[in-house]
Amino acid sequence: TTEIYTLSLHDALPICQTGVESLEFGDIDIDGSIDGTESLTLNAGTGNIEISGEIGQNTPLRDLTLIGNLTDPSGDPLLIQVQNFIQADSFTTQNDLTLQAGGDITIDDINTPGDVSIFSIDGDITAGRIDTGNDLADAGNIDLQAQNVTIASANLQSLNDIGGNLNIDDRKSTRLNSSH
Fold it and tell me: Are the CB atoms for 43 and 64 separated by under 8 Å?
């Protein structure tokens, strides 16, 4: 029998050993900061990864891989910065989301009523559906900057107010399969 435990990180967590830190748990709850110059993989399997703290704000991680259902229950804007790449499953936030990497950023889907800003200095952005639609207020904006940008679809609709803007700054090519 395999037991799955919940990992809760409430204080600052420095990632400073050489190599890849790989943590595999059930649910993972991060409400402290994570900084360091090495790589980190958080694997919740089919569980949830709740991120309320900042990742890489003071010292960007080398690489970040997040496996699980990513959520931000705090309602605060969320910032994730890494040196090389970010790879993540679907992400749901209650406010703005900013992802910054030196290399590639790959994420399945993003759902938030706030703004989404994704910046890759020398890599590509690949994403599924990015949804900043909001039924109660203005929809969020989507800003994407990378060498190449590929997203499956974007929803920037608001039922009662102003829809969001989609801004793509790519240095090579853009591929958007659909938007609303």
Answer: no
**Residues 144, 71: Cα–Cα separation, whole Å:** 21
> Global pTM?
0.81
Contacts of 161 (CB under 8 A, 6+ apart): 134, 137, 138, 139
- CA–CA separation, 120 vs 118, rounded Å? 7
Q: Phi, psi at residue 64, to the nearest 5°? A: -140, 125
What angle is formed at CA 50 by the lines to CA 179 and CA 23, rounded to 5 degrees?
115
d(CA 79, CA 52): 10
- Contact yes or no for 132/142 (Cβ under 8 A): yes
C-alpha dihedral, 80 to 63 to 18 to 41, nearest 10°: 80
CA distance 54 to 115: 17
For the stretch 54-111, pLDDT in tens is 888 888 888 888 887 788 777 778 888 888 888 888 888 888 889 999 999 999 899 9
